[in-house]
Amino acid sequence: AILDRLLGEAAGPGRTPRACVLQHRVELAVQNQRTFERLHPGRSTAVFNADRKSWDGDVVFAMVPTLGRSPNLSTLPVLDALIIDEAHHCCAATYRRIIDAARERNPRLKVLGLTATANRGDGKGLRPIFSNVCDQILVRELV
Q: In what order do the strands lie in the sheet containing 81-85?
């Protein structure tokens, strides 16, 4: 429901939204794509990784190490939404290159970060990338 709303708001009425889901591990990409396809059978998906580099889907599941390379990053289309799994990694240079390139192509880009590790060990904050936190559950609340 959150993704549907995000994509709908990002694209505007009457337009099919384009989104990219970033992850840094193959296992996460496969899991994310399978879950998305099960929940959204009407939306097309594609994969951007070392083996396949396709932007043909409404939602593309991209590997950060592959997309972050200059020749690959130059193929990045205009996106309506960028979803970052394990968003605590987004302070790294490769993530920043991807985020900056996506924002350059669409200044109205919606960026959603998901993480279970909001407080980084190195103390770097996520504010340069994300303007707010929509929900947070602390460990003590789960125990």
A: 45-48, 59-63, 19-23, 81-85, 110-114
